[in-house]
Amino acid sequence: xxxxxxxxxxxxxxxxPYLAIAIGLAVFAHSPRHFTTxxxxxxxxxxxLIRLEYRVGVGSAVAGQLVFVPLLFEMPLNLIPLAVCIxxxxxxxxxxxxxxxxxxxxxxxxxxxxxxxxxxxLMATGEKAFTWHSWPLYALALVLQTLADLGPAAIYExxxxxxxxxxxxxxxxxxxxxxxxxxxxxxxxxxxGGFTFLALLPLMGVLWLxxxxxxxxxxxxxxxxxxxxxxxxNRRSFEERLVVEQARAGxxxxxxxxxxLDLDHFKVYNDTHGHPAGDDLLRRVTESWIANLRPESxxxxxxxxxxxxxxxxxxxxxxxxxxxxxxxxxxxxVTFSAGIAxxxxxxxxxxxxxxxxxxxxxxxxxxxxxxxLTV
Length: 375
Hints:
There is one protein chain. The protein has helices at residues 3-28, 37-49, 65-74, 80-97, 116-124, 135-161, 165-192, 201-223, 235-252, 266-273, 275-291, 316-329, 349-365, and strands spanning 54-56, 59-61, 256-263, 298-303, 306-312, 336-342, 371-374. By secondary structure, it is α+β, with helices and mostly antiparallel strands. The chain has two domains: 3-223, Orthogonal Bundle (Arp2/3 complex 21 kDa subunit ARPC3); 235-374, Reverse transcriptase/Diguanylate cyclase domain (Alpha-Beta Plaits, 2-Layer Sandwich). Strand 6, helix 13 and strand 7 form a beta-alpha-beta unit.
């Protein structure tokens, strides 16, 4: 099924029932509260906060809970689901018009399910003002809010992105932990009432800027460990990973194989077809090889047409199997030679890499398009 079709199906599954309920509450339910200026400002603040994403583990979280909690005790409850939904849609539309693609709310309507359980629970208990004595009720509302958000999010990710549910639950649990931490702060603002929540916004803005700066720094550090042309790891990353894998193999008693690979007659190819074609070949070779390696393996471009391959928990036979697999997927206009060495548990990293290099030179001298295993 094509991606845009899955997207439409996922959006329909999560959005249509929610809109029906939200509109029904707004039209047919009644509230003793009145819609005020505080509610307008709070909704604007909420829309701003749900656009400021914070990296939490491998997921993203927003600080909308800081304003959503006070909203539950200021705004007419029957209007909150529809108002939050409209705010989410408008916020997403603003991002699209500015050329930014929102990562947290691709399905703007369906991401508002979290509003329904706390709204319905507080409506059922009389839409009362905030009081600390009712904290068990608020704790229940928070748990129900999380479950209501988790269900549609899991369905959407499964239908649209074909994401496995087990790892997804772990990511979402980490993200929702962010809401649990912010809820008591939102309750303080709800207890004070009025525009008190505005005092929290500058702090969240500063935290977002710090998080943004941290992500930029991490991105720069990540790029510093990648080969600019091919996107594979570079020599620095290769050497750092060797140290890590040697220590791991030493602790566990596992095996560690190192392979040195070199494209055959690459200079001739470069001179014949030109450097742009040579660069393209290097990129295609790298993509083909990485796609056929286990996630724990590391392929690095060490310079020119030479690559290094780290194979954790790989015996000599297993390393041979990997090299044969890479030979089958290498672009047809080039071959490669390889040298394989397996760490003996005592030699230094320099010694095992040197053995792999010697084996590579043997493969070259014996006619290329082959590998040599050194023991």
